[in-house]
Amino acid sequence: MQVISPASVLLGTAVWLAACSLAVHAEPVTVVLGAQTREISALREELRDRKDHNILGLPFWEGRLAGRRVVVAKMSAGKVNAAMIATLAIEHFRPAEILVTGIAGGLHPDLAPGDIVIARQTVQHDMVRHGDSGVEYRGARHPVTGRRAPAFLDTPTTLVAIAQQAAGRVPFIPLVGDDRRTSPHLVRVITGIVATGDAFVESDSKRRQLREQLNADCVEMEGGAVAQVCNVLGVPCLVIRCMSDMADSTAMADLEAFADAAALNSARLVYAIVDLLHDGQQDALTLQMKKKQ
To answer: What is the rounded CA–CA span in Å between residue 122 and residue 120?
Structure first.
């Protein structure tokens, strides 16, 4: 008679549970993260068949957005909060990709409140080495291998291409300044560099520094941290930012005036991206790009 040890039973149970978990998560899921309630509320309200999750006291909302399985979560401000929520989302939901949505301060001279940056790269502007000769921007080391990542993390080209395609379909809210009332292109969408740091930038000199040293197009407080987590854990990540201000001496006043509409512009683009992901555009673009190589 064969004797089955308790350890074998536990191992078999663990294998079965793992198989069940893989079966549950076989359908692609997109995680959408925003730091503020206004950045996620419109998307959360659009979720169909919504299920509310509580993970270590933190809320995650799962449902259908444009037909795709989506999980929405609020990060709160700052890189630590962003990294924590991103890690929990990856561990619990095994997403195919993470999209970061919300507002930012513009650095590119051609941008204004309401305009959008699709991140082709992210950089953490406060992950630096200060020396007498100046500032050296550095990437984070991998917690296991110790290998240092580039300071500028690339967004997967397929996600950038999908975002660019989606931007042409979105009815953005025009936030029109006095100098742009006659412009037929009230909302500009560019692909560029998003700088992240644990600081709200409301300074003309800091704004110039970030633009000159990093060639960054906008600055915010979470995207680069999520991109770092995703880089380590192997999850594609895309950061979308709509300008609420220009990170200058009037940034706080501009943010109070434009933040709600800017957050909605970003959310509308994210919705359009999710719609294309549900239609299988990511697989089609990946195949198309492989053929070009």
So the answer is: 7
Give the residues across from 152 on adjacent strands. Answer: 123
Task: Give per-residue pLDDT as tens, 94-126.
Answer: 999 999 999 999 999 999 999 999 999 999 999
Extract the tokens encoding 223.
Answer: 């995207």
The C-alpha atoms of residue 103 and residue 258 are separated, in whole angstroms, by: 9
DSSP-assigned beta bridge partners for residue 239: 100
Question: How many angstroms separate the CA atoms of 215 and 186, rounded?
Answer: 24
High-pLDDT (> 90) share of the chain, %: 71
CA 177 to chain centre: 27
Q: Which residues pair with 148 in a beta bridge?
A: 141
DSSP secondary structure of 70-90: EEEEE--SSHHHHHHHHHHHH
Q: In whole angstroms, what is the distance from residue 7 CA to residue 21 CA?
A: 21
Reported confidence tier of residue 57, pLDDT bands at 50, 70, 90: very high
- The CATH code that applies to domain 103-292 is 3.40.50.1580
Domains of the chain, residue spans: 103-292
Contact 193, 216 (CB under 8 A): yes
Q: Provide the token pair at 85.
A: 């929520």
pLDDT of residue 9 exceeding 70 = no
Measure the CA–CA gap between 239 and 241, rounded to whole angstroms.
7
What pTM was estimated for this model as a whole?
0.85
Q: Which residues are catalytic?
A: 39, 245
